């Protein structure tokens, strides 16, 4: 008999640092998902990623209280802030820049995010990353 899907849930958890404390525990607990099982599985699957990187995860849960998870790559803004060595984006986007990244760095970010972006090739993925940089107040040189 096939598993009956109840719903899905999107969370952003730090790679390798999932624990039952809020917001992870309550979000999973109210849906009947085994919290410790999720934490162990998530930490095992993200151990090769950079520890502490914000990692989006889509959890699909079923009637028999089992679940599957689809782990995405960290957001483009995380990579851009890291490459530009800034802690946050510009408060006045379009008027002031907080940092800059090179085209080489943009290409590396686009290649890392390729599977999660709606792009067919690296050049179009780079355009998406350049747009994200512009909206954050990060200049591309």
Automatic annotation (TrEMBL):
<dbReference type="InterPro" id="IPR020784">
    <property type="entry name" value="Ribosomal_uL11_N"/>
</dbReference>
<dbReference type="Pfam" id="PF03946">
    <property type="entry name" value="Ribosomal_L11_N"/>
</dbReference>
<dbReference type="InterPro" id="IPR020783">
    <property type="entry name" value="Ribosomal_uL11_C"/>
</dbReference>
<dbReference type="InterPro" id="IPR000911">
    <property type="entry name" value="Ribosomal_uL11"/>
</dbReference>
<dbReference type="InterPro" id="IPR006519">
    <property type="entry name" value="Ribosomal_uL11_bac-typ"/>
</dbReference>
<dbReference type="GO" id="GO:0070180">
    <property type="term" value="F:large ribosomal subunit rRNA binding"/>
</dbReference>
<feature type="domain" description="Large ribosomal subunit protein uL11 N-terminal">
    <location>
        <begin position="9"/>
        <end position="67"/>
    </location>
</feature>
<protein>
    <recommendedName>
        <fullName>Large ribosomal subunit protein uL11</fullName>
    </recommendedName>
</protein>
<comment type="subunit">
    <text>Part of the ribosomal stalk of the 50S ribosomal subunit. Interacts with L10 and the large rRNA to form the base of the stalk. L10 forms an elongated spine to which 2 L12 dimers bind in a sequential fashion forming a pentameric L10(L12)2(L12)2 complex.</text>
</comment>
<dbReference type="InterPro" id="IPR036769">
    <property type="entry name" value="Ribosomal_uL11_C_sf"/>
</dbReference>
<feature type="domain" description="Large ribosomal subunit protein uL11 C-terminal">
    <location>
        <begin position="72"/>
        <end position="140"/>
    </location>
</feature>
<keyword id="KW-0687">Ribonucleoprotein</keyword>
<keyword id="KW-0488">Methylation</keyword>
<dbReference type="GO" id="GO:0006412">
    <property type="term" value="P:translation"/>
</dbReference>
<dbReference type="GO" id="GO:0022625">
    <property type="term" value="C:cytosolic large ribosomal subunit"/>
</dbReference>
<keyword id="KW-0689">Ribosomal protein</keyword>
<dbReference type="Pfam" id="PF00298">
    <property type="entry name" value="Ribosomal_L11"/>
</dbReference>
<comment type="subunit">
    <text>Part of the ribosomal stalk of the 50S ribosomal subunit. Interacts with L10 and the large rRNA to form the base of the stalk. L10 forms an elongated spine to which L12 dimers bind in a sequential fashion forming a multimeric L10(L12)X complex.</text>
</comment>
<comment type="function">
    <text>Forms part of the ribosomal stalk which helps the ribosome interact with GTP-bound translation factors.</text>
</comment>
<dbReference type="GO" id="GO:0003735">
    <property type="term" value="F:structural constituent of ribosome"/>
</dbReference>
<keyword id="KW-0699">rRNA-binding</keyword>
<comment type="similarity">
    <text>Belongs to the universal ribosomal protein uL11 family.</text>
</comment>
<dbReference type="InterPro" id="IPR036796">
    <property type="entry name" value="Ribosomal_uL11_N_sf"/>
</dbReference>
<keyword id="KW-0694">RNA-binding</keyword>
